[in-house]
Structures are given as C-alpha cells and as structure tokens.
C-alpha cells in the first residue's frame, strides 16, 4: 500500500502539459470534429461558483456569432492582430486582404490554429513577442476581459499602445456585469467591499484532470471602460450593445 | 474594506440548502422544462478529474433509456421501492399495478418527484425510514454504485435484506469500471495500490455555488459484485450487459 498515493490530491496542473487544459480541450474538440455538447470545460470562480463552456464556441462560423462579433471582423483594416485568438475562428473569417497575426498563450490552441493555416504565435497581450505593429487590434470573444483588473489594465493598455500603428483602432468585445443574473450580484458586491471593480472575476478553467492557475477577467460596462482609459493613449469612440446579452463592441482609437 | 470578504473562499456547501445542489439542479431543470444541455452539473473526482452530467437524464422517457433500464422496470413486481429515485423517471414508467415508493436523500429531488404525483420519501438505502418491506428493490441509473466501497457494501446489503419481503428481487444497474477509457486507468491503479477496489470513485457534485460533500460511488464488474455478496443474503442470478456501454442489469435474489 502506497500512503502517498492514497492522499486526496485535489485539482492541480497536469504534469505533462501544465496550465494548458484549455489547449487540450481545443485539440480534443478539433480532432473529434467540432460539434455542440461534446467537449466542455468548467469555469470555476473563486467563490465556488461553477459554470460550463462548450468548446464548440471556439469553432463557430460567422453566422453563429453575435452580430457585434461579425461587425468587429468587418471593421478590421490593414495589418491585424487577433489577441487571444484561440483556434482562430475570427481570423478564418478575415478576408485575404489582411495580413493577420494571432496571439494565444496556449500551445494547444496555437497548434490547432496553425493546423488551419493561420499565422498564430504563442504570446499574450502584455508579452506579445516580436510581432511588429498593427492597424487593427482585435480582442474578440469577450477578450476585453484581458484587462484583468483596475491595477492590471494600465499595463495592458500600454502594451496595446506599443502594438499600435498611427491611427490604429482597437475592436474589443466586452461584457457588462451589470446585466448579469441575480445569482452573480453577491459576487459583485463582495468585489466592491474589497475595493475591486465589481466585475473583476477571479477564475480558473478545468478540463478532465487539467486545472489552470487562477486568473482575473474583468467584466466592465462601457462607462467603467471609459473611466479606466483615463491616462492611457486610448479613447472609447463607440460602444455597440448586443441586445439581450451583456456583450458590446467597443471601438477605441489610439492617440499616444 | 472588509478583509474577511476578500479571502478566497473556495467551494463550500451553500448556506441556505447545504448539500442539495443536486436538488437545486433538478428543481431548476424541472421548472424550466427539461431539455438537453440547459442544466448541467459537475462531477469532481478526488484526483481533480472533472466531468459534466446533463440534468436532462433525470427527466428522460423510457424510449431514451438503455434497454437494460427498460428491462429492469418491466421486471418489477409487487410492492416496489425505487432507491435513489431522483425526480422519479423510473417510477413514472411503472404501471398502476404496482404500489411504488421512492427514496432519495435530496429534498429538492423529492419535491420534484412529488410534484409529479409520486410517493417519494427523504431517505437513503441505509436510512430508509419507516417504509415497510418490498417485493422488488430498484437501484437504477447506476445506483448499484451506492454500495460505496468494500467496507460500506455489507451495511447496504444488510439494509436491503431488511427491506426485502420473502422471494424479493433486487434489480440494479451497475457500471463495470474495466470498460472505462484509458484516462481512468491511473485512478483505478491508484485505488488498487491503496487496497481499495479499483472502481471506488470518491467524488462530489457541484452546481452553481453548491458543492456536495465527498462521497464514494462503487463501480464494479459482475464478478466483483458476486465476490462482494459473499456472506450477505443476496445472490447474483443474472448480469445482462448493455452493449457498447459499461452498464449492466444485475438481478439478485434474497435468501436471508
């Protein structure tokens, strides 16, 4: 009998592919041929709230997207960077007129995107590597949440500025937490009591035995975004809400 | 700023309805009108493996079941006890010829079953309350797993004996762990190294902010079941496998 083996171990990063349960999910879904309901990941919030996300969303076609996501892709011009591109669904929809580069921190996601013929590099918004500068920066699929927190957002905005060519635009999909179901309001209130923005969500994702590290995703309203941009090079020009959802398309311009 | 509120709390039983996340899931699914993919619960194994179960399974009709489940219901005779009946899907399929009582530990599940006109009491196989004796004992939907472990099984079998009338039959759906996907084999091997039966699965269920206590569910082959029955009043008469799945219908008779 092996005493160590008998201790409950609890969730932990997988030994072979640390912190890339997300990549494993995308690889598995891609290999199986993406269909709804077959590959699901778990999103665990730090108060114990659990929800489920279907990997199929990472393989959807434009006609399955929210209109604001289609609109964002249609507005892209020039050299385009898709930040947090996952398997590259938005890049696939960009026509050949654009030179498009994708960034994602997940080796598994990058592998799946490359299998689809896309130019995707391992990197994050604050550690993009040597990708150059862009006319359009995309943060789609809710990736405005990569702002992370009130404290982290300036680093993200500064990095975006370094990636921006003159007259660059940032097209980002945000999620307004103030439209959320009542069951989430206690979480927002706890954040307020802790001096955080209400929509700062500390979460990790789980898939099979893989568990990511905890990270922060920032849900914020267009007004909160405008306030957060103070002192940065970025200006919110328009926020187009997606009716019946909390999502909106934010168009920002850069004046460094 | 409230320091206590800022501590990560992690999963915990919900204050208002401790350990009845399962009941909340069934109540929510029933209230919404059961459909596939709308209400999901998370099953978390003690090694961190997570999987997802669709609450729709608790509201399926006989034509959606495995044939062995239909067969079990067709074999029921006399006064019937459905142990771990959930929302009562098997009880609903039993014709009016039977007096049928259901048992479930979840107040939420019992409430949903009662809304469907069923005689369901709060209780478990080892704490059934004053329900009398039965000609047929049902442990369907994989509920043979309520045997729990090698150590717990004798208590379950003794309780079943006390619930059994002369010539009573136990009809139970088991799950053979030796048919499982390779990703589960390390878990079975760890169990063996700890002196446990390979299919003893320590798990808890999570739904939204609710988290159950940890409990053991015993997956075992018909041969392992036969061995486990030694010294009990129960004899395995037949084990009918469900092709392409790990499930089987076990028919047991009682000779106290």
TrEMBL record, chains A, B:
InterPro entries: Methyltransf_25, SAM-dependent_MTases_sf. Residues 1-20 are annotated as: Disordered. One of its GO terms (biological process) is methylation. Transmembrane segments: none annotated. It holds the Pfam family Methyltransf_25. Residues 80-166 form the Methyltransferase domain. GO terms for molecular function: methyltransferase activity. Keywords: Methyltransferase, Transferase. It comes from the Bacteria. This is Class I SAM-dependent methyltransferase. It comes from Actinomadura syzygii.
């Amino acid at each position: 009998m092996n005493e160590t083996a008998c201790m409950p171990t609890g969730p932990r990063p997988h030994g072979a592919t640390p912190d890339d349960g997300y990549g494993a999910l995308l690889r598995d879904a891609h290999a199986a041929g993406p269909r709804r309901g077959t590959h699901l990941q778990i999103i665990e919030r730090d108060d114990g709230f659990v929800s489920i996300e279907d990997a199929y969303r990472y393989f959807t076609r434009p006609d399955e997207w929210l209109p604001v996501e289609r609109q964002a892709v249609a507005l892209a011009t020039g050299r385009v960077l898709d930040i947090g591109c996952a398997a590259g669904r938005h890049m696939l929809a960009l026509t050949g007129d654009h030179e498009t580069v994708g960034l994602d921190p997940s080796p598994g996601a990058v592998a799946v995107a490359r299998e689809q013929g896309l130019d995707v590099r391992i990197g994050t918004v604050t550690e993009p590597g040597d990708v150059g500068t862009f006319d359009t920066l995309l943060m789609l699929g809710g990736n405005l949440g990569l702002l992370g927190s009130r404290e982290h957002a300036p680093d993200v905005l500064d990095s975006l500025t370094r990636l921006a060519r003159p007259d660059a635009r940032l097209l980002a999909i945000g999620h307004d937490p103030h439209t959320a179901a009542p069951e989430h309001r206690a979480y927002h209130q706890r954040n307020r009591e802790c001096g955080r923005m209400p929509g700062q969500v500390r979460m990790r994702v789980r898939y099979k035995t893989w568990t990511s590290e905890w990270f922060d995703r920032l849900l914020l309203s267009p007004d909160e975004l405008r306030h957060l941009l103070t002192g940065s090079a970025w200006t919110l020009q328009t926020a187009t809400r997606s009716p019946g959802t909390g999502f909106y398309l934010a168009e920002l311009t850069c004046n460094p």
